[in-house]
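Q: Structure for this?
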Amino acid sequence: MIRLLTAASAALLLAACQQPASAPEKTDAPAASATRTAPNFTLVDADGAQRSLADFRGKTVVLEWTNEGCPYVKKHYTGAMQALQRAATADGVVWLTIISSAPGTQGFVQGAEAKAWKAKHSAAFTHLLLDPTGEVGRLYDAKTTPDMRVIDAEGRLIYVGGIDDKPTNKVEDLQGATNYVQAALDDVEAKRPVRTAFAQPYGCSIKYADEQA
Amino acid sequence: MRLLTILLTALTLALTVLATGPTRVEAQGRSLALLAATGPQRTDRIEAELVPMSAWATPGSTVIVAVRQKIEPGWHTYWRNPGDSGGPTTLDWTLPGGVTAGDIVWPLPERQRLQTLMNFGYSGVVYLPVPIEVPASARPGETLRLRADALFMVCSDEMCVPDELTLALDVPVREGAAPLDPRHGAAIQAVVETAPRPAGITARAGLADGVLTLTATGGPLTGATPRQAFFFSFKGGLIDHAAVQTGERGPDGVTLKIKGGRGLLTNGLTGPVAGVLMTDAGAWEIEAAPGPALAGAAGDGALSGDEAKAGAAMGLGGFARAALFALLGGLILNLMPCVFPILAMKAASLARSAHEPGEARRDGLAFLTGVLATFLALAGALLALRAGGQAIGWGFQLQSPAVVGGLALLILAVGLNLSGVFEIGGGLQAAGQGRLSRLPGGAGAFFTGVLAVVVAAPCTAPFMAVALGAALLMPWPMALTVFAMLGLGLALPYVAISLSPGLLRRFPRPGAWMERLKALLAFPMYGAALWLAWVFARQTGQDALALLFVAGLLAALTLWLFGVRQTERAEGRPGRLALIAALVSLIAFAGAGWLALRAPAAATGEATSSGPLASQPWSEAAVAAARAEGRPVLVNFTADWCVTCKINERGALSSARVAEAMTAANAVYLVGDWTRRDDAITRELERHGRSGVPLYLFYAPGADTPRILPQLLGEGVVIDALSGRS
């Protein structure tokens, strides 16, 4: 018994002496500045044609991530998003709507369904781009639907973030909300710096394909 | 003429209808609220219900109701900051006149990782408490219909569904202190008391190279040695929710380095960063103003922010340490007053088997099996309940008054056995007599093992807390092993003796000394029973304690009568009278026992004094006098029947740190007791726009008007007010 206790105490002392290994200090890479170049990408659109961001250099480009099943997207697609698309494209803005949902997940479309998407939602975007691998969504760090990017004619990201300042799924909250994409486009047209370069995006998570280990 | 009558009637009818039009709309509004059904409302993903914490509402008080969510597996709802996606639960209240609802008291959320996104939310069963102010004009006997239009954004990995449910609850209005609601009261009170609140922690934030450095010191962080920490921001965009947070701890607090969110990186650090700092030592609300790092927050070791990482870092070293601690804890458990007598007697009875080593060995191993089986069963139940979403820890069995009361009665019975009132399995005189009443084989030893664990449960030894806390974080095979080590430690002395013939021979021969020892050891058992009765009283109240005493008395009587019967049988008499009397007494005991153990856990209605805080009765003159002296004044308007007041008084207002802060600030503490609804206090409440208690006022020196402190006080709120922080 005594021997057992002695052995136990010795083991205890040894255990207590063990210091937890300190975790290495994480140094983060310096964050990209607020206005950085929008990375180029190439995706196939709903009609099967290849579209690259570089094709639209010289025009203002709006990227919109969407998922027709998400309640937050549905709120905007009761008319407000389509109206904004219409007004923007009439002004010469290129509006690219991107679906980054993985095959089999909510929002994913292909083939005839993709071709019919625009008419089904009475949308007025320039092109519907299909990103089933999620590569472009991850490239732009898009997290939610809706998630918006505005790129100026020189290819710089001038607005990143949510579509407006009312993070709910209620249609009545469209009234009186500040639409940041509209504001950014207005700033571009007035040739002044964009006043709100970032706003917290809200919505459903983008249904990305699982990342390879 | 007929036509005229008809026209006049039609006109009258039309006018009546028009006149009642507006009131009809009002009535419709009220009846819409009435149409909302009480009780649980369901969708495929979530069941929600509005439930009360107390059995009724007292006029002029704050009651707490909660939205109880039962969420299907695979789905979740969100915290006030949902994280990278989703939205928080929102409530839109329709309340009777004069009744107002406060903000949701959010419990600490879970971290829910979804590929590269991080969300903060809840799953399983969740209570979201909301304080509701009931005006003093409410009349006892009436019922308040509360209605909440709740929007739950319920999401799974695949989709989000906005479930809108209308929840209603009827709250009766009565006088007097309300006991806890039997079904949900205890759970809601637990959430209210443990929800993160300000705790007087000073914090600073600095941004450099895209990394936000948070330092937090003071308050409960001083002297705490957390191993993990994580910061939940109230606003999105400030921090990268999904990034691992690393940091270190120091003597006074912690430092966290968090990757900045896009909002912070775009706009810079323009204001304070507020949120919840969670550590394994507790979770509190902090607000970090921009500024240089605080001293004393670094230098003592690294922290891990990622839950999974902490678990992995546990690894083999941590597991071995926990197992060793558990073994030692079990050994020490042998010395606890409730366990020691059982084991001592068992060991003494081994002396009888000194010359039958085979029997001793069998007994020893049976005892070990009993102990291990019971520990593993308890541990298994604990792990299963935790996996099912219950936030409980070891000792969970002692949170139920029924279990505590039952254990007290059981320990009383064991004590009576030791005192010789009755025998089990034959007395010590059985040595050499081969009585049939002795349990066959090692079964007796097995059940002694079970009993030892059952009575050991209330006594947690040092060492055990560390081991068990660690065990609950491990994967279940490792956790069960740690508990098994605890059992091994408990059984070790007895097993060691029973396996060693040499030790057995050293035991003195059985004799009168054993009877004396046995009777002596009864007293620690009685002590343990009394302690459990005290715990029971704290959980349920004086009336239930009285019932427990009656049950204990009847138990003692029953056992004595059984003992009498045993003696009569031993002397050859049938002992029928004793048997009948014993059975009658047993039935009476069962009745009393059932009544006592049914008692619900009640919020203590007795007027507990405000702990260590010295108080004086409130009056306007007292306030004026203190202010004239330039001293800060804290006023507490309370009442015996106000449950929220009692929660605050037991918590924030009884804390030693608040007492220290009050003395340091030379503050005066005045208590206005509104139990009898004094007019003077009523007028003072109305002057501050309130019609009920609790109301906490803080008069800072030199300020013209007092500050109204929140109804759910945390010690941090009081300390911040005293130290002059807004």
